[in-house]
Amino acid sequence: MANQKVTFRNPWAWVPSLYFAEGMPYVVVMTVSVIMYKRLGISNTEIAFYTSWLYLPWAIKPLWSPVVDIFKTKRFWIVIMQIIIGGGLAGVAMTLPMPGFFQYTLAFFWLMAFSSATHDIAADGFYMLGLEQHQQAALVGIRSVFYRIATLTGQGLLVVLAGRFEQTTGGNNQLAWSITFAILAVLFLLFFVYHKFILPYPDSDKSVRSDESSGVAQEFLKTFALFFKKKNIILTIAFLLLYRFAEAQLVKLVSPFLLDDRLKGGLGLSTSEVGIVYGTVGIIALTLGGLLGGYVVSRQGLKFWLWIMVCAIHLPDAMFIYLSQVQPENFLFINLAVAVEQFGYGFGFTAYMMYMIMISEGEHKTAHYAICTGFMALGMMLPGMFSGKLQDAIGYPNFFLWVMLSTIPGFLVAALVKIDPQFGKKVQKQ
To answer: Which positions ≥6 away from 39 have C-beta within 8 Å?
Structure first.
């Protein structure tokens, strides 16, 4: 009896920590790495190109998402991926002081990216297995909030901390960031230990095959075939790839723009100031926008709010046109401008998330949602790859004008998608 595994545990004991652990490596790989490389003297062209390639594991994770279903348990994959992510963070910390740090750290970021993408698949599946349906609905906002808190910690607290280390190490930025990543490695070791003992063992969390006689290859083919047989699948893929075409370019250059010297067209902020503007104020605004978006969709459905959300995610990008043209020195105003853009993004991104949930309904929901998120990552990766080279060629003012033109595909695909008027509304109990 003493060795009996706990099949259920209070969700508050593991849902917040699980989604904090899910969000942290993503923000470290995709955003913190950009700031770090900028502070270590890497060019915008190289930063945007190489860090955009890091989206690839999230883009192609549907290719191995059935593996998480077929082999072992979701719980197994979660704890194993957390220790590997911790090892990757330690690897970055150890190689940063070396002469060839750029190549070495990129290799460890690749390891973290693949591990984090696998962790995402397992965590989202475990959430559905470890909770009853009504609990899933009740805690969906909580899981989102703690994912955002991880983003806030990464882009905000972590960057501010690195900025402080830059000062205390006498400008030795490589050592400063090495210390920062060592702290992160310890944090993930703690996550590994905590979740190994705290995560429950749901009875339904086991390797699955719809037909025990079928092979692994057949399971793969069946999962993908069912997704690509969905109605209007070409339009669906176009929406997933193009809805954030402008934002995919913008996000790669926001931190370099804030950090770059004013003579280069930037705002000349310090590392710690960027941690406050983009990583704290911006993420709080992003979270509030997301929470409001989820609330209003639950009241009146996705179709009712779609066009308002499309405008919200795209039109505030114009704030960066003003910032790049005027280059204001008022720190409060810079915070306000970024907050407006991030709030709009958080609110408008709700439409994208709800659309993915709608598309994933039916058989193989977990794998099909993973396929959607793969296209989502691909939609961020490809535009981001050329954004840095483009900005280097035309400068920040013209680049942000181009970003506004790049919002047009997002409006076009939103005009074409079909959405059930009732989808997203909270069901009233009789």
So the answer is: 162, 166, 173, 177, 259, 271
pLDDT at 2: 47
Q: What is the DSSP letter of 5?
A: P
pLDDT of residue 394: 95
Per-residue pLDDT tens over the stretch 378-397: 898 889 888 989 999 999 99
Q: Which two tokens stand for residue 107?
A: 């290799």
Please report the DSSP string for 155-202 in residue order. IIIIHHHHHHHHHHTTS-HHHHHHHHHHHHHHHHHHHHHHHHHHS---
| CA-CA-CA-CA dihedral for 227, 228, 229, 234, to nearest 10 | 130
What does pTM read for this prediction? 0.72
User: What are the structure tokens assigned to 249, written together?
Assistant: 């370019």
Buried b (16+ CB within 10 A) or exposed e, 240-269: bbbbbbbbbbbbbbbbbbbbbeeeebbbeb
CA distance 155 to 273: 11
Domains identified in the chain and CATH numbers = 10-199 (1.20.1250.20), 222-421 (1.20.1250.20)
8 Å CB contact between 354 and 302: yes
pLDDT tier for residue 430 given thresholds of 50, 70 and 90? very low
Residue 267: CA atoms inside 13 Å, Cβ hemisphere, count?
A: 32
And the tokens for 18?
A: 């699980």
Distances (CA, A) of 244 to 64, 250, 299, 352, 379: 25, 10, 25, 9, 7
Answer yes or no: is pLDDT of 21 > 80. Answer: yes
